[in-house]
Amino acid sequence: MANNYIPGTTNATLIADGGIISTPAPTKVAGDKVNAVLELQTTTRAPVFMKPMTTAQIAAIPNPTNGMEAFDGDLGRFVQYYGGAWNQVNPLNRTNYTSGTLATADVQGMYAAPVAVASLPALAAGLTYVVHGLRLVLDSVTAAFTGGGAIQLQYGNTVNAGGVAAANTVAATFLTAAVAGTDRTIYTTGLDGSAQTAAASLTLGMYFSNATAAFAAGGTSSIAYQIWYSVV
Length: 232
Hints:
The chain is mainly beta. It has helices at 55-59, 104-109, 173-176; strands spanning 4-6, 12-15, 38-41, 69-72, 77-82, 85-88, 96-102, 115-116, 129-139, 145-147, 151-155, 164-165, 183-189, 206-210, 215-217, 222-231. A hairpin with a 2-residue loop joins strand 5 and strand 6.
């Protein structure tokens, strides 16, 4: 196959088998030279879309070959063919991220009314969120919070931190021992090896709550949170 450059506007298809092409010198949007058999260029649309297939449809693909990939709509994830079988792509390699802020009223009220985590994708039946890391950043503005209890990221909106934990808890002193005007940061990992029933987290959203009692005071302080997670 000869080196070919098929120009476009914001989109182009580049096909070559001669490695990096210098004449002509097609470039990616970012300005890097092409070193691939197929390149998709776009600044306005997703470059690739795999229409979801059912598990049965994927299993019926004739002559599957190691390296093939498809999106299994029943599982809600990618699968790859290798070792003589279709295998689910390890979701831990595709970590998602979301962030948000717990305002003063959220912190004070989350004991009786858990606060939902922002911007999480809807879950298909049988799937759940698995948290890899949780980071809290306290902006202690005018006064420290008082009272309260252990802060919990949990599945579902059961009050008083009564839901199944999604990550290790954060002690109330993270808030109550803060010095006004000084930010504090804490990082905790996802839940350890604690056992739970199979249905305890499936299709449930994640919420912030706290145990023991409601937090009080706090002035105008707030908590920014960051969560790294997978859908499995």
